[in-house]
Amino acid sequence: MNLRRDVFQALADPTRRAILLLVSTQFMTAGAIAANFGTSRPTVSKHLQILTECQLLEQEQNGREIYYRINAKKMIEVDEFIEPFRKLWEKRFDTLETVMKKYKTKKQ
After folding, report:
1. pLDDT tens per residue, range 21-80
2. Residue 22 contacts by C-beta under 8 Å, 6 or more apart in sequence?
3. CB 50 within 8 A of CB 16
4. What are phi and psi of 66, to 5 degrees?
5. d(CA 40, CA 47)
6. How far apart are CA 6 and CA 62, in angstroms?
7. What is the sign, positive or negative, of the torsion defined by CA atoms of 100, 105, 107, 108?
8. Environment class of residue 16 by beta-carbon count within 10 Å: exposed (0-12), middle (13-18) or buried (19+)?
9. Band (1; pLDDT cuts 50, 70, 90)
């Protein structure tokens, strides 16, 4: 049975976020990825499985080795989902900054 994983649930884990950062600049094997973490290789393999299932990572077989790379298209989808929230918070922080400047001016 093929489980469909939620992208944001996958991103919630700090190890998986670290894996994404690690493979964002280069193709890497599971062993090379695991060497960067203080956990067992099966644990890292489970993280890779989850990231692959939700399409944040892509696999490419080269001989006997499987290389992992980031799926830029999926990351763009995530960014596009988050963008309206980013704009909302930027607007709120700009408003707060304006209020704080007025408060600071009145206080002096």
Report:
1. 999 999 999 999 999 999 899 999 999 999 999 999 999 999 999 999 999 999 888 888
2. 28, 33, 36
3. yes
4. -110, 125
5. 11
6. 28
7. positive
8. buried
9. very low
* Length in residues, the chain: 108
Q: Are 33 and 57 in contact (CB under 8 A)?
A: no
Q: Please, which residues have CB within 8 angstroms of residue 60's CB and are 6 or more apart in sequence? A: 27, 66, 67, 68, 69
Enclosing H/E stretch for 50: helix 41-53
Question: pLDDT of 77-100, one tens digit each?
Answer: 888 888 988 888 998 898 898 888
